[in-house]
């Protein structure tokens, strides 16, 4: 049996082709992205992106604890962000989508975050991920660009405040 014929090989091939399309053709990917169909594929995509990012943090000296912390934190942050985006979009801007399509946007917008651990490139990855979030929120929530940006900023701001409260420090740091 060839490597590409196994379940693992087809999973890796599917992940790589999806990742490549998200990165190189974001408008086409977002336009073609199904709004329903379960959370399995987007969640697997998110976990693999988080695992690659965590492995990069391991290589850069964060250790095994850092690897686990980055992996778990990125997945939990994505879940919370999707919830917050739905709440902000629906309650402030009359967004029309629920959790599943919004989670799909957040999961696939994690594609550039595989480079989060690389100095300077990590900031570019954050910016590109934010761009993907805005474009995805426009499509799934039916928002204009301004409202999609506000949804993202308010949702991420709330996530940041939750993190600050959880860490026990002042919210402005």
General description of the model:
The protein has helices at 7-24, 26-32, 40-93, 99-108, 121-141, 145-167. It is an all-alpha fold. Helix 3 crosses helix 4 (99-108), helix 4 (99-108) packs antiparallel against helix 5 and helix 5 packs across helix 6 (145-167).
Brief overview:
77% of the residues lie in helices and 0% in strands. It is mainly alpha-helical and 173 residues long.
Throw out a few tags for this protein.
mainly alpha, 173 residues
Topology:
Layout: H1 7-24, H2 26-32, H3 40-93, H4 99-108, H5 121-141, H6 145-167
Shape: globular
Give the termini separation. Answer: 54 Å
Overall number of domains: 1
> What pattern of helices and strands is seen along the backbone?
HHHHHH
Mean pLDDT over the residues: 89
Radius of gyration: 16 Å
Largest sheet, in brief, is:
none
Parts with pLDDT < 50 across at least 5 consecutive residues: none
Number of E strands: 0
Total DSSP helices: 6
